[in-house]
Design goal:
CATH superfamily of the largest domain: Acetyl-CoA hydrolase/transferase C-terminal domain
Low-confidence stretches: none
Number of domains: 2
Strand order of the largest sheet: 13-12-11-10-14-19-23-24
Mean pLDDT: 93
Radius of gyration: 22 Å
Distance between the termini: 77 Å
Length: 441
Amino acid sequence: MYKKWQEMYKSKLVTAEEAAAMIRDGEVISSAFGNGQPVALFDAIRKRVMEGKLHKPTILAASMTDSMPLMDPEIEDRIEFDSFFVKSERARIKEGYYTHTPNKFSDLEKISSRGLRSVQVSVLRVSPMDNHGFFSTGINVDFGWDIARSNPNRRLLMVEVNKYMPRTYGSNHVHISEVDAVIEYDLPLIEESEPPTKKEWETIGHYIAEMVPDGATLQLGVGGIPAAVGRCLMDKRDLGVHTEVIPEVYLDLYEAGVITSRKKTFMPYKWVAAFANGTRRLYDFVNENPMVEMHGCGFVNDPYIIAQNDNMISVNATLQIDLTGQCASEAIGPVQFASTGGQLDFVQGAWLSKGGKSFICLESTFVDKNGERKSKIVPQLYPGSFVTTPRTEVHWVVTEYGAVLLKGQSIRTRVKNLISIAHPDFRDELMFEAKKMGYLR
């Protein structure tokens, strides 16, 4: 059969320019997170747009890197760009060139399958084809895979084969018979190191570590605080992995004998994730590793799937929280910095888990552009801010001044608890405002 798949492969092999010519004016093109995006094809699309051969395509993707061809400022007003997760696109969204679709990652597969977003072309960056005719979407299954497979309006499915893309296991494989065009383009993957730690993050990590039992299953979000939390778990035993993203710190925990996944109640001995983000060291680890299973966000982020892991521990960061517990994790005022992503999915899933806990973390203060220190715990969210995690869903909140319980607590108790973990310089002011708003007497 391999010969048959090879012949089929050759019959569908095209240049990036030939693939781009298959795309029609105004069509919506879906892809994945950064390393899952087809560099050569996107460059060919950019060239066709600049030459006037392709008009107003829409790119539906996320976390475009600055080096990605479609980030070329010369075509900002010639394409529509819609991001499912805001990262490097922040400036262009603020300027009005790009837009953002608010979503929970667990919902994107259903949004696609129900035809709420019509996508005509799906493109995936994949590992080389195996002897059975299958490509692996490697470290970027995420929502790119979900949309490509579930979309009822898809006209074309294209893959860009990259020898540097790891081959991973799980529900993340595309067969050559399903593909309309194959492009070959080898380019080392983007690597991202964890940010240097801070004393405040380490303190937050120690508070959380005290409440993580041996045998728990972990979800750590992206960023410095979740990474610091991971480093504080080195004395734990038999931790498991069910997470949206695999960051580098998971590998540190595994090599230290902390992560075994043997006590997981859902898919024991398996790391379950939707994508990986780190250095080549991490990418080499997940390559052809049967312990690691990569699935789409529609599966990984489903709160009811998450909840099948007993003692599920979810750790995510927020930008600002008000005195009742509303978390603005993606924007301060109307300025979009990030997205809902999987935060609410895992907050809900951990709550539904037997023995589960979710932690929303933040430093107590920040320094604004004028050099003035301000509290991240505020009487009310800044005007225009978007609530990412509602107060009804928040379980534990942690700053460098402590960890407090909000779930099931009255407004009065919530207010007192949150003030107790605010920076001491702002506690009197917060108390005054709480009384002024009628939260306290």
